Amino acid sequence: MIQREISDKIVYLSQKFPVITLTGTRQCGKSTLLKTSFPAYAYVSLEDPDMREMALEDPRGFLNTFKSPLIIDEAQYAPELFSYIQGIVDAADKTGMYILSGSHNFLLMQSISQSLAGRTAVLRLSTFSIDELTQADLLPEDCNTWIFQGGYPRIYDKQINPVDFFPSYIQTYIERDVRLLKNINDTSLFVKFLRLCAGRTAQVLNISSLANECGISSQTALGWISILETSNVIYLLQPYYKNFSKRLIKSPKLYFYDTGLVCSLLGLDASSQVALHYMKGELFENMIISEYYKKTFASGREAKAWFWRDNNQNEIDLLIEKGGLLHPIEIKSGETMQSKYLNTSAWFKNIADIPTAQGTVIYGGNTDFSGSQGSFISWKNVRSVF
């Protein structure tokens, strides 16, 4: 069993709140985490049609049958339960009564805002991180293999080849998650859209271009981007333009939470193809920035991350706020340290009118180095930066 970084945090918060809510993409390990973290709790999954029907038809009877402490998995299927849970926890005035989980962040949060605001701690889980696999001695030696495999638990628990895992995962995701959020008649068109998004990984999002290439309207493209966000498949990294001139890029960049899924959508069928792929740099960048989000999720903190680019193509791949400072981070897939990689960070530090740390380069090599101009950090030690 691979230990999840978030486990201590979720147990701690269960002693402070009556309800815990855990969201995360399908098959990222939510159910396993909750069952192992709370072995004394009863467990019910609303993916079971009988359990779902009971929760929908008779929510009070459902909660009388399955009493707290209780884990309700895929709770978004029965939003009617939330008002009844509110009444129960208010009357009991106890902590750790219910654990709710689900793959749909929007549906869960919509129900929480209506019934459980102030009564629940909300946490997010992603796929395995570099640190989690390092602790389990399962991290691949080279970053190309890590990028290709990604971090979905089943790949490691069951030793499934990613080529076999991801096609069925994509099909399950569309049938169970996408259809719940939106009635899409032509699922093949949505798959095409998903593949086009993969081809735009780590790039500034251009909705018009994406819509045109897919053969859909811009409004539909925006709706489908929202679906991918709310089901925890992609995230949009916003640009940082506070206190700077107006000549800055103000559209977000698109990333996936898991690079293994991206590789599958791009048609890669072996890790050796990553090194030669025209998107190797983008895949490496996606992998590094996703590690930042996994770190913040595990700690229960709010992500404070941006990118920076002006109209002259000066760019900082990642800006994070930590300790009252902005930290400029350059991301390079090459395995060789080159001092020129720190030039943009140094330039940014000079023009920024807010406190800014020295630059850091996260690169594809295996050795860390710190000098007067900044630091080079191996991809394996990326968490030390965050």
Notes on the protein architecture:
- By secondary structure, the chain is of the alpha/beta class.
- It has a domain at 7-125: Rossmann fold.
- The protein is 43% helix and 18% strand.
- The chain has helices spanning 7-14, 30-37, 49-57, 59-65, 81-92, 105-115, 130-135, 143-149, 153-157, 162-181, 187-198, 207-214, 218-230, 259-265, 272-276, 280-299, 343-351, and strands at residues 19-24, 42-45, 70-73, 98-102, 120-125, 203-204, 234-237, 253-256, 305-309, 315-322, 325-332, 359-363, 369-370, 374-378.
- It has a six-stranded mixed beta sheet with strand order 9-10-11-12-14-13.
- Helix 5 crosses helix 6, helix 11 (187-198) packs across helix 12 (207-214) and helix 12 packs across helix 13 (218-230).
- The radius of gyration is 22 Å and the shape is globular.
- The model has no long low-confidence stretch (mean pLDDT 92).
Q: Provide mean pLDDT, rounded.
A: 92
In terms of DSSP E residues, the strand content is 15-25%
Proportion of helical residues: 40-55%
**Strand order in the largest sheet:** 9-10-11-12-14-13
Low-confidence stretches: none
CATH superfamily of the domain at 7-125: P-loop containing nucleotide triphosphate hydrolases
Broad structural category: alpha/beta
User: Which fold name corresponds to the CATH topology of the domain at 7-125?
Assistant: Rossmann fold
- Main CATH class of the domain at 7-125: Alpha Beta
Distance between the termini: 25 Å
Question: Count of helical segments?
Answer: 17
Main sheet characteristics = 6 strands, mixed
Strand segment tally: 14
Q: Nearest-angstrom radius of gyration?
A: 22 Å
CATH architecture of the domain at 7-125: 3-Layer(aba) Sandwich
Shape designation = globular
